[in-house]
Backbone:
């Protein structure tokens, strides 16, 4: 797979160290990787604004001109596909991952044996992003990428497939449709299946998804959903 990977960290030694791990991983896995290193968010945003085709971003959380979390929020306003891996020295930043759908957090000093499986998952996600399902439309059927689905809702004998732009309704059981989905989707209620990528906040009673929608959660599901998010992140 051809991958474009960015490292954004104000520590030059850290950039070089991560670059070495990335190069070795890409060579071992047979990926053609273009690796770019940035000393700060502004330098990355300058290139990103021109090219917008990065696949993976290794991002330091604490940087002087702008935090990594703030940078990730800017990118996420328009890009849901970029695989973001936060690098931090502090546990307290972990909760910020919900807001920006971070793939993973790694604590400094970064262990290559822990980073490589995360990179494997990032590559799998990028390959899987092209997976699609057919949904009904007014004019026939639409090929819809799984990554674009926020959640699916059962409506009697129909289901409603919600994306950020549209809602597609079709006559099918929720369970039958769910057979076409992958591990990024989780059934949180008898009538709702949610894309873990689009969860922004969870409480004991409901889930906030991208766009601000509230999804009810069945009693006793909080721990299971939290565990699913922890495994996925």
Residues:
């Amino acid at each position: 797979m051809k991958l474009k990977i960015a490292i954004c960290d104000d520590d030059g030694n850290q950039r070089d160290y991560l670059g070495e791990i990335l190069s070795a991983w890409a060579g071992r896995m047979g990926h053609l990787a273009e690796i770019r290193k940035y000393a700060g968010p502004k330098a990355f945003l300058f290139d990103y604004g021109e090219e917008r085709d990065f696949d993976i971003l290794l991002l330091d959380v604490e940087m002087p001109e702008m935090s990594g979390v703030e940078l990730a929020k800017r990118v996420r306003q328009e890009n849901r596909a970029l695989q973001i891996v936060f690098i931090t020295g502090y546990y307290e930043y972990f909760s910020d991952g919900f807001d920006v759908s971070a793939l993973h957090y790694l604590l400094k000093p970064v262990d290559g044996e822990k980073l490589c499986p995360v990179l494997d998952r990032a590559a799998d996600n990028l390959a899987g992003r092209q997976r699609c399902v057919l949904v009904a439309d007014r004019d026939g059927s639409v090929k819809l990428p799984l990554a674009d689905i926020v959640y699916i809702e059962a409506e009697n004998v129909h289901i409603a497939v919600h994306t950020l732009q549209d809602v597609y309704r079709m006559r099918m059981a929720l369970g039958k449709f769910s057979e076409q989905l992958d591990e990024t989707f989780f059934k949180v209620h008898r009538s709702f299946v949610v894309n873990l990528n689009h969860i922004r906040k969870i409480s004991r009673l409901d889930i906030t998804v991208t766009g601000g929608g509230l999804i009810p959660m069945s009693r006793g599901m909080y721990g299971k959903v939290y565990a699913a998010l922890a495994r996925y992140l």
